[in-house]
Amino acid sequence: MRFFFLPLVSAEIICNYDEPCLKACTDTVCDYYWNVEHRYSRTWRTKDYGLKGDYPKGAYRDFPVFWNKTTNSLDLIDSGISSGVDHIYNEDGTIKDPLDDLENLFFIDGQEERRAITINGQLPGPTIIVNKGALVRIHVKSALHEESLTLHWHGLHQVDNYWNDGAAMINQCPIDAFNAFTYVMRADNSGTHWYHSHYGIQRADGLHGAFIILEDGDEEENMSWIPMVITDWYSADSLYLAGTDPYRFGNYNGTRFTGPATRICNTEQKGFMTGVKMSSYCVDSIIANGRGQLRLPISEENPEQKEFFFSVGEEYHVSETTTKVQLKSIHAGFEYPIFIRSADGRPLTLTATDGRRISPEQGDGVFMGVGETWNIEFDFPLSEDRLEIIAEIIFEGLGKKATKVERPYVRIVILRDALVAGSEVKSELVPVYPDAQIPDMFDFESENDAFEKQLLNCPMTHIVDIPCKLVTEFQRDPEFESRFDHPPPSLLATPDRVVDLNMNFATGSSFNGIKFKYPDRPFFENPEDMDFTKCTKKQIENEGGYCTHLVEVEKDELVEFRITSAEHIENMSRRWQWTYHAIHVHGYEFFVTDIGFGVANQTTGYIERNSPVFGCRGGHIKCMHTVFNEQLMSLRRSKFGRQDHIAKNTVVVPAMGYVVLRLRATNPGIWPFHCHQMNHNYEGMAFALYVKDSEENKPFSYLPKNMPRCGDYHPKDTAINEESFEKENDAQQSALSIFFVLFTFLSINL
């Protein structure tokens, strides 16, 4: 008698180190093997070098290439590696043309040798697609030469799994160069999420990717969906940007500046919206799924005349039966908000954000803050063969008067293809030539049909003359109510704790004047038992400073955060520091219950003072703290009180305005709460939400084994967490071994 062995637990390996991860995982256990390395743009990766030279064929080599305008071809730059070899050859001895090998060309936006960080050679990193409930193990091996790294799983709540959240020096020590670490997590909350480096501003080098968790009911007939990671992109890499940042070190109480700030724009070059600065940085390109096209002015005398770089684009092919295309859009960028719209003016529909379904909202474009995710749908009638979508930087123009200029953008092209079946999506790489000039197809200053249009998710009431529908006006999808682990807190319920927080630059990037100082070791035990730079009572209440700012709440408390982005209205020395901020919290989602705006001049449309709902405490000129008018807040609650506010994990705070967020503190741990604009966070605009579990002492009652080491941390050899994922998996494997032995014995004897 013969028995067939059926394993109790299976693990689907999606990719091995250096292999592309191209498929979704349909199993209950999903293993990814990732190699993290540096690559340089405008290069060609090949194994064929040396076929006719002095070096053996077979090793990966990246060769610089450039666009030859005379011959209209890509030429190999003399590498100097092997004299006399100026070509790459095919097996048959013919010269290999880089244009016939687009998948191995690494161009990003076409600029020369921009240092980037890739996973298995990919930028952005591999897309993770798993089913809800899957156990996901990501085995990370670092091939970075002089940098450490961590990966944060943005949008995953990591309940009872605090150690795998990936925030450097909060949850874990960084993974050092040429070391490895395995992240283990359960895909508990469905939707469009993402992952990214949480080490300095390393994310600016492309160390990020999509994390899609599917469940029943997500698919629609005749709809094709595409993960779309979009970012603003800069010619300088993260190490350069960090090294030239004038605000990072020592700048509390305004005492000194350090870096030369070579990527900081003059005021006349900065992007402005409603008279408010969007960022101090000079953006170069927009890239979508790692591809774009750099466009630079040929001369200062004629900035309208552009030089376009050769690049590689990606087109997406859908079936002939597709009638709707959904972009699972992720803003993984650095500083600037991004605006998404169709190229031909057709409307779009929002159906989900930050992993949660919402009642459909239709508009003519959507504003995405840094860190936000939105599922964006476009109708694609069967009579059409091409759909073109634009992702662009959002600002009215440059300088204090917002002089109109062309904004950086990228095209996302979807084509119909008879060879694609059902809801499947295939992509094709195409060369993007230097003469591919594209007109600026959306004119914010046009008054035609302005009042018939509507934009979505803006941190202002209008963009020029076009009205915006606000995030607080969106509603949860009632069909998906049961998917909330905890019901949304009532707007009218009295919170257990109210936390007022103001973001501004009174002492540099800060909350309430405090620049966050990361500890020199992670929080592997109760903060009361650790030695780190604790904030004093004076610093928290009055003085501000540079310390490790913890906001402590008790488990299960209902907490209301009132977050403002305000300067004192009479502090004209910082008038051009007014700006917007994208706020993100780890380990949680929150409910956005109110949003308020600075007051705009009715003639110019420019914001000229902060919201009347709050003011600077004591009229202090630095405005490190704000105080809300409780009577006006009560009136707003009674007027706008609803029970269907949408859940978010990232939201944009209006300039000189505020947002009110509520969450139930059910997930113990120390969770970063920060501005998601990278330099703001890196410079200190952050604090840590300490959700204290006085009964069970989670998560400090155990420590998983094999955590990376740093400082004076010396981990134990074995875990003492009986509920950890590794223990769970070990138990499953033990059961599997016993089962296999038993069946082998029976099969031999029977």
TrEMBL record:
Coiled coil: none annotated. Residues 108-215, 540-693 form the Plastocyanin-like domain. This is ferroxidase. Its EC number is 1.16.3.1. Keywords: Copper, Metal-binding, Oxidoreductase. Belongs to the multicopper oxidase family. InterPro entries: Cu-oxidase-like_N, Cu-oxidase_C, Cu-oxidase_fam, Cu_oxidase_CS, Cu_oxidase_Cu_BS, Cupredoxin. Pfam families: Cu-oxidase_2, Cu-oxidase_3. It comes from the Eukaryota. The keyword Transferase does not apply.
